[in-house]
Amino acid sequence: MKFLKKFFRHPKLIVAVCLLVTAGCGFFIKNLTLDNSIRQFFPQKDVSYTRMTETEDQFGSMLSIGLTLEAKDGTILTPEYIDVVRKITDRALSIKEVENIDSLTHIDYVCEQDGSICATQLIPDTYTGTEEDINLLRSRLSEWDDMYGRVIINDDGTATQMQITISPNKTSESDSTRQQRVLDEVRSIAKEETKGHSLKFKLAGEPVLSENSRAFMMSDLMRLIPLVIIVVLLSLFLSFKTVDGTILPLITVLMSTVISCGLMGMFGVTFTLVSSVIPVALIAVGSAYGIHVLTHYYVALDSIEGELTKEKYEECVFSGLKEVWTAVLLAGLTTIVGFISLVSSPIGPLHSFSVFTAIGVALSLIFSVTFIPAVLLLKDLSKVRTKSRKIAKLTDKMKSRLEKAKKLRGGKEEDEASADTLYSIFKFFCGSKTRLVLTSLAIVALSLTGLRLLKIDTALINYFPKTAQFRQDLDYIDKDFAGTNSVFFTITGPEKGDIANPELLKAVDDMQNQLQEDHESIGKIVSLTTFIKRINQVWHVPTTETVQETQTAAVSEEDSAQTADLSWGDDSDWGSSDSLSWGDDETSEEETVPQVQFNDPNTEYAKVLSGTMTTKEVLDLLNEAYTAAGGKNATTDEIVDELMKKTNYNGAAYYEIPYDTAKYPVASREELKGVVNGYLTLLSGSLGRFIDDDMNPQTMRITCQLRSHSTDETGSIIADAKKFAQERFPEGYTLEATGSGEMEYTMTKMIVSSQFSSLAVSLISVFIIIAVSFKSVWAGLLGAVPLALAILLNYMTMGFAHINLDLVTSIIASVAVGVGIDYTIHFLTTYREERAKSDDIVLVTKMTFKKSGHGIMTNAVAVGLGFLVLCLSKFTVLKYIGVLVAIVMFTSSFLAMTIIPGILNLTDPKFIRPKEK
């Protein structure tokens, strides 16, 4: 008591310090940055993040904005709409942060031009918008569908898409601010250029997701915090019916919330979707400490007899505080332990949620035992007397109502009636050994069943409701185009130049085809092989010259020597000083050139295409194509493709990696590497996004677009790719996955590991706290049981309700431990007190329910209602949080009043029995 009097000697100073600290920290709230991008969530020291940044340094940024233009009146391929695409592309390219754009008017097209092979633009410079030009464009789009189909244009030609790549951030400016500025400029350009045209545009990509999440968060914070305050105010008013009792506990949690959020701004911690739970959690949970302090204050005030003097009043404040100090401290400590358990998580938002929620709870506790008593000590005694008389009147009214209710219930008081109900519930579920075992087994069985249905998915898109415009736009793009999600693969060879190895390129091409066949969610895969196959096709388009140049299959020894060093096409070069030869480019003049006898298959293709066929030959060809395409299961497109390959129409038979030596004038497959190197020379400057070096690549990157946002599916694709590479790639080559899709998948594993570690930490901490408090290891084990079961029931609920365990829902276990432990401690403490008074176990149990049952249920309902406000959030995942926390509050309080008394009554452990009669 002396310490309290000394500490509160200057209550005005205490109030001033509390308010100044709040104002000082609150000033930094303006520095808070709202960001929900996957890059913000992911730990930047993790190997996945490092791999992504290194890949971006090698091949360019993987951060992009997708802009889709949809024609309302039919085809997008009109001179008017193509002009709009060109203007948007040109203007967007002038944005400082834009690294590259793929669009209908700005994308490579590999073709033969003026006797040489080159990478030019899809729409040539000679384009004027005539019908002939449009038809040529349609032909080019169809001709190289692997490159353009569902990437640049959708299947029915009514919409086009452009990918605007944002360069990596090399400045001190925050990434979210920079991305938002680019997005605003792109949106402004799209609005201006589509104005007056029958075009509708949609935006997608990480910057768009971040923008929508910020808008949703701001809306939530503006609506939910006032609602939580109203809920808490109502519960406080109904509890105390006084201004002090209503306002002071609320002020303490608001102060702690302001300081916690201010500290986040002060230390540059990003405010994420997980962080938005902090204010709601603190207001719902933190007010309990102020309630405890004021309850004991009013009890002490009501016990004062005679005239209220300053000395008596101070004694009243101090005695009430002294009585409640230990209980409040223990309650606060256990709640802090629950929240702080997530500090072991490697995921930044979970780590910051853990730290700053724990800080907020600690501050709520501190303010409750400092700020509230200081304010009470500053009150005018005349007003205190007035409030005291009001309390007396309210007490008399309440007693009168209780008496009436008692008569209606057969003479039982409200607490007694409530205790009887709770005792009956306990008897039904755990009143005997058999019932306790059956109830426990039923809980475990149901939990394990639901746990098997639980899915772990960290896709950020799932946080948004499907009715949101942003989600609808994504669904449209995922349906009509290659998809808005992506994962990248990097393949590295032992030495420089090894990526040109046909053995590897053939295996990569097979892997890509296998992945697309096995996974419907893959919309498109584009890589170096896409370009190699295209240039190989263009070079082998049959012409009449092919027939004239190869009249015989046999080649003389002299001709063979020439063929071994043959430049493709006519006698001229490739349009540059470099010529492409079939043999080894490093063969010296002294070396003997091996003789090659080569029958060019293109000779027969050219004869067929330039000649006439009988009806039978046509039907035979169609039948062969029909059979090769899969027979009755084949589609028209597949049959046509096979028919084109069988006649090598437009070089279709050579749309492949140069691999079959029978189709090329080489002696071995090793010599085909020279052919690939020649292709790389021709495409020099156009492959920066796919290989690390134009001439001697050692690493290549594959872009895999996904039409699904399931991290489970992404993980399956990555696993299949790695398995294929391990089994089929030549020795020495490695494959790694990277990009936002891979990071989301990796984060699922992090969440699982962090859940195990945080639960282990929290349950062990609970065990230690209870064991120390009751001086018994058995007490610690007993106290952890209902919390463990409550967590299992939470996972069960999530499994049956198809709610994913993700970045946000993973915090529920911490809330369950942090708040649920109070119920356990409260019940155990009261039970031990009653056990010291009697050996009648039934009487002890009933009295425990009478004294603590109502309080436990009231607290559970209050906290549950506070979190249920989250059901009004715009985020789907926060709605889940609101419901799940409310359920956890019910289950943890239910288990504390069924499983624990069941075990205590059956075992009557030593720690619960009195040492002396």
From TrEMBL:
GO terms for cellular component: plasma membrane. The keyword Transmembrane applies. It comes from the Bacteria. It is a multi-pass membrane protein. Residues 250-378, 780-906 form the SSD domain. Keywords: Cell membrane, Membrane, Transmembrane, Transmembrane helix. InterPro entries: MMPL_dom (IPR004869), Mycobact_MmpL (IPR050545), SSD (IPR000731). The chain crosses the membrane at residues 221-240, 247-271, 277-299, 320-343, 355-378, 436-454, 756-774, 781-801, 807-828, 856-875, 881-907. Residues 549-595 are annotated as: Disordered. Belongs to the resistance-nodulation-cell division (RND) (TC 2.A.6) family. MmpL subfamily. This is RND family transporter. It comes from Treponema peruense. The lineage of its organism: Bacteria, Pseudomonadati, Spirochaetota, Spirochaetia, Spirochaetales.
